[in-house]
Design brief:
CATH architecture of the largest domain: Alpha-Beta Complex
Number of strands: 12
Radius of gyration: 25 Å
Helix content: 40-55%
Pfam families: DDE_5 (PF13546)
Oligomer: single chain
Protein name: Transposase
CATH topology of the largest domain: Transposase Inhibitor Protein From Tn5, Chain A, domain 1
InterPro entries: IS701-like (IPR039365), IS701-like_DDE_dom (IPR038721), RNaseH-like_sf (IPR012337)
Order of helices and strands: HHHHHHEEEEHHHEHHEEEHEEEEHHHHH
Shape: globular
Length: 442
């Protein structure tokens, strides 16, 4: 007999809480070897669960309370001092994503995201433009590499951008634990390093894409071409293009094209239907690199607004192929949004180099687990009238069905209330003491 409790699983065959929990334990089990002590292995599992738990606020305090620990000290030590094989764990993230989502036609997508911060001592922070806020703010900025295939997409790697102001300040670097041998690298240089690391590790892929920050960098374009990776990289309208008629601005080429040069093609499906634009392709000259090189132009069919891309591929490909790759660039925006909302990528409250890298690495692993789980669920057809499971819905179902948390005992809740209020009282007293000292000096 089918009960009411059984009914949801009966009508949603793609929902498999037991299988999801088994898959999570399988991922955690392969990560165990990267931690020196059993306590760290257990805490790694609790940390990953906490990142995905949908807590209103995520930091070492709330993670420790969610995990049933008596204080935040263990979580803080785990991030800052515990013995990890950080590079090995990063390789595990890459291998896990490729094993589940790997495809020879995959697209590497790079982009940066910023986390607004207060103060001046958090590693990498300075006043700089961040797309997250849409303006110049006091922020950290990091470059991320997304791996996108028809099956799904997830982060492969990341790199913290260290501004020149930090690189020129040894005392500040030392206080934040920045490695002594670290040198300044631009965002395109960081992207180049990330994609070359992936290619050297044997990650399959055919294309790369990114916004103007990356498309305007000739060294990145040259590296991708020499690695025989096709690319569709956005460039500014003032970007200089070499043609048979000489060097011209991209916008000047666009406005002189005849009507017959344009083709209406979808850049992919969106929430409200196909993303239709008019597209044109112009061959470029003056390249000292192998392969086919073009300027790809996109025109909005409603506003007439233009967008421009430098393209390359080792062999000739149709215009529609370049358009498809251009449309895939938005996958990284999806990953930023979902990893921040569902895996607390941006909620770290840490100041030092090691802690920042460990937090974001664990958040990328949690997000990759959600992305892979969602991709696997798509192998099972949904019931009539339902859209396929989304990453957001999978996370919700996992924390409700596969990883439910028992209600904590009253004594535990009260102990944490006491801990928080004691810490806040000490912080308040410290602020008052500093304020009084400053007034005496004045």
């Amino acid at each position: 007999m089918t009960t009411r409790e059984d009914q949801p699983v009966a009508v949603c065959p793609s929902v498999d809480p037991d299988g999801w929990l088994e898959a999570f334990e399988g991922l955690a089990g392969r990560l165990d070897r990267r931690f020196a002590r059993p306590e760290s292995r257990r805490r790694m599992r609790r940390f990953l669960r906490g990142l995905m738990a949908g807590l209103p606020r995520v930091n070492c305090w709330t993670l420790a309370e969610y995990a049933g620990e008596a204080s935040p000290g263990g979580m803080q030590h785990f991030l800052a001092e515990a013995v990890w094989d950080d590079d090995g764990l990063r390789a595990d993230l890459r291998d896990y994503v490729v094993e589940r989502l790997g495809d020879p036609e995959a697209v590497f997508v790079f982009d940066e995201t910023g986390d607004v911060k207060k103060g001046s001592m958090t590693v990498g922070v300075q006043r700089q433009y961040t797309g997250t806020a849409g303006r110049i703010e006091n922020a950290q900025v990091a470059v991320y590499l997304t791996y996108a295939t028809p099956t799904g997409h997830a982060f492969l790697d990341n790199a913290l951008y260290m501004p020149r102001s930090w690189m020129a300040d040894p005392e500040r670097r030392r206080a934040a634990g920045v490695p002594d041998d670290l040198t300044f690298q631009t965002k395109p240089a960081l992207a180049r390093r990330l994609v070359e690391t992936a290619l050297d590790a044997g990650v399959p892929g055919r294309w790369a894409t990114g916004d103007e920050v990356y498309g305007n960098d000739p060294a990145l374009r040259a590296t991708l071409a020499r690695r025989e990776l096709g690319y569709v990289l956005a460039v500014a309208k003032t970007h200089q293009i070499d043609t048979k008629a000489g060097r011209r601005k991209a916008i000047d080429l666009a406005v002189t094209l005849p009507a017959t040069a344009w083709n209406r093609i979808s850049a992919g499906s969106g929430a409200k239907g196909q993303r239709l634009y008019d597209w044109a392709l112009i061959a470029t000259t003056g390249q000292d690199l192998p392969g086919q090189h073009h300027l790809l132009i996109r025109r909005n069919i409603t506003t007439g607004e233009y967008a421009f891309y430098r393209t390359h591929h080792p062999t000739p490909v149709p215009l529609a192929t370049y358009v498809r790759v251009a449309g895939i660039r938005w996958n990284v925006e999806d990953d930023f949004q979902s990893s921040k909302e569902l895996a607390a990528l941006d909620e770290h409250q840490v100041r030092r180099w090691t802690s920042w890298h460990r937090w974001t690495l664990l958040a990328m692993l949690a997000h990759a687990f959600l992305a892979v789980t969602t991709a696997r669920a798509h192998d099972t057809e949904p019931a009539d009238g339902l859209i396929p499971l989304t990453v957001n819905e999978v996370r919700h179902l996992i924390i409700q069905l596969a990883m439910p948390r028992p209600a904590p005992a009253a004594g535990f809740v009260l102990a944490w209330s006491w801990w928080r209020r004691r810490h806040q009282a000490r912080a308040q007293a410290s602020h008052y003491h500093r304020q009084a000292a400053a007034l005496q000096l004045n």
